[in-house]
């Protein structure tokens, strides 16, 4: 579930990318990454943070807010992959969560973690004058989407969860065992070491970080996250173009870990959702696993949808099918039969 290439960077180093002024909107806040990645966005100032968001599409269409994964990623690849197509039938809001991507600029003592992030989301809804919206969360963002719906049911029309589960440890264990099973063929020189780590002691998150050290980020994500190598390469190019990967603050991961992210389910994001929802999974993904996706859908009380040619990023691998699924769900949630 965690995008480990980002988590590793957050744990080992502070942001090193040179700050640059955004192309739009005008702001005095220092920014990180390439100016072009800020185009079309706006700022929302809240106490000790300045949040970057974009809101596009017909104002009278169903509103959908996208929550990126990580913790610590950003919404740029999602925008590049499906942003334009989605705005044909929904009002699409994309938020870089506090401390992440284009919202990385914050005070040293700014609050981070689950409560602050959910408060930001509700403040943005009120700021935009949206009565109810569909909350679309990918990977870790799916946990946030579920938590938001449970905390703010009157603000939520429906929930679209993509490749996520309320139990991060179970998803990480699935990744560990998948890697160990593939190791003799993919990494024969490290197969014994990979098996020892995968079946060893310690938190699943820490063991998975050790496996990334043995295999390399690109190689392991090719196994776990992607169906088509060309899609992985395209997403990597978009990440590089954005210049945002090194922007996220190290404390983001630390704060969610302190909230219990690495230790198991919490009532704030588990349990039957008070609004209708759908859980989209990629049939070629090895991040969550079919058994865990089924269990997650039952726990949240939502429908299941499987995309046959997708890994962990169906909006990159099957963009047309993904867009149609979001359009259909959002329109049903906002105008139920």
Descriptive account of the structure:
The chain is 44% helix and 14% strand. It has 13 helices and eight strands. The chain has an eight-stranded mixed sheet, with helices on both faces. α11 links the parallel β7 and β8. The longest helix has 19 residues, at 168-186. The chain is globular, with a radius of gyration of 19 Å. The protein starts with a helix and ends with a helix.
Short description:
The protein has 337 residues and is of the alpha/beta class. It has helices at 4-12, 76-86, 114-128, 140-151, 168-186, 191-198, 204-215, 217-224, 229-242, 251-258, 290-300, 314-317, 319-334; strands spanning 42-46, 49-56, 63-67, 91-95, 133-138, 156-162, 277-282, 303-307. Helices cover 44% and strands 14% of the residues.
Helix-strand layout with pairing:
Elements: H1 4-12, E1 42-46, E2 49-56, E3 63-67, H2 76-86, E4 91-95, H3 114-128, E5 133-138, H4 140-151, E6 156-162, H5 168-186, H6 191-198, H7 204-215, H8 217-224, H9 229-242, H10 251-258, E7 277-282, H11 290-300, E8 303-307, H12 314-317, H13 319-334
Parallel strand pairs: 3-4, 3-5, 5-6, 6-7, 7-8
Antiparallel strand pairs: 1-2, 2-4
Helix pairs in contact: 2-13, 5-6, 5-7, 6-7, 7-8
Give the name of the CATH architecture.
3-Layer(aba) Sandwich
**SSE ordering:** HEEEHEHEHEHHHHHHEHEHH
Low-confidence stretches: 4-30
CATH superfamily: Alpha/Beta hydrolase fold, catalytic domain
Q: Count of DSSP helices?
A: 13
Strand order of the largest sheet: 1-2-4-3-5-6-7-8
Provide the CATH topology.
Rossmann fold
- Domain count: 1
CATH uppermost class? Alpha Beta
Q: Largest beta sheet, briefly?
A: 8 strands, mixed
Strand content: 5-15%
- What fraction, in percent, of the residue positions are helical? 40-55%
Whole-number radius of gyration?
A: 19 Å
Count of β-strands = 8
User: What's the rounded overall pLDDT mean?
Assistant: 90
- The secondary-structure class comes to alpha/beta
């Amino acid at each position: 579930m965690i995008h480990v290439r980002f988590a590793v960077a957050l744990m080992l180093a502070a942001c090193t990318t040179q700050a640059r002024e955004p192309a739009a909107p005008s702001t005095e806040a220092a920014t990180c990454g390439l100016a072009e990645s800020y185009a079309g966005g706006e700022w929302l100032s809240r106490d000790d943070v300045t949040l970057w968001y974009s809101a596009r599409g017909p104002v009278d269409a169903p509103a959908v807010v996208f929550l990126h994964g990580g913790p610590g990623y950003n919404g740029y690849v999602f925008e590049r992959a499906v942003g334009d197509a989605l705005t044909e039938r929904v009002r699409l809001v994309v938020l870089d969560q506090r401390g992440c991507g284009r919202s990385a600029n914050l005070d040293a003592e700014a609050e981070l973690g689950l409560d602050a992030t959910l408060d930001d989301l509700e403040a943005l809804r009120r700021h935009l004058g949206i009565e109810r919206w569909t909350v679309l969360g990918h990977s870790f963002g799916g946990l946030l989407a579920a938590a938001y719906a449970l905390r703010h049911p009157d603000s939520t029309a429906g929930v679209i969860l993509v490749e996520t589960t309320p139990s991060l440890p179970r998803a990480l264990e699935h990744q560990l065992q998948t890697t160990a099973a593939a190791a003799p063929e993919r990494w024969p020189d490290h197969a014994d070491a990979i098996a020892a780590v995968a079946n060893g002691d310690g938190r699943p998150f820490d063991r998975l970080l050790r496996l990334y050290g043995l295999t390399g980020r690109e190689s392991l994500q090719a196994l776990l996250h992607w169906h088509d190598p060309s899609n992985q390469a395209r997403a990597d190019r978009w990440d590089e173009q954005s210049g945002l990967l090194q922007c996220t603050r190290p404390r983001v991961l630390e704060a969610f870990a302190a909230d219990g992210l690495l230790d198991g389910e919490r009532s704030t994001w588990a349990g039957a959702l008070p609004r209708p929802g759908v859980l989209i999974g990629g049939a070629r993904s090895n991040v969550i696993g079919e058994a865990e996706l089924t269990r997650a859908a039952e726990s949240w009380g939502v429908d299941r949808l499987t995309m046959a040619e997708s890994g962990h990023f169906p909006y990159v691998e099957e963009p047309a099918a993904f867009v149609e699924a979001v359009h259909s769900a959002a329109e049903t949630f906002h105008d139920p039969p």
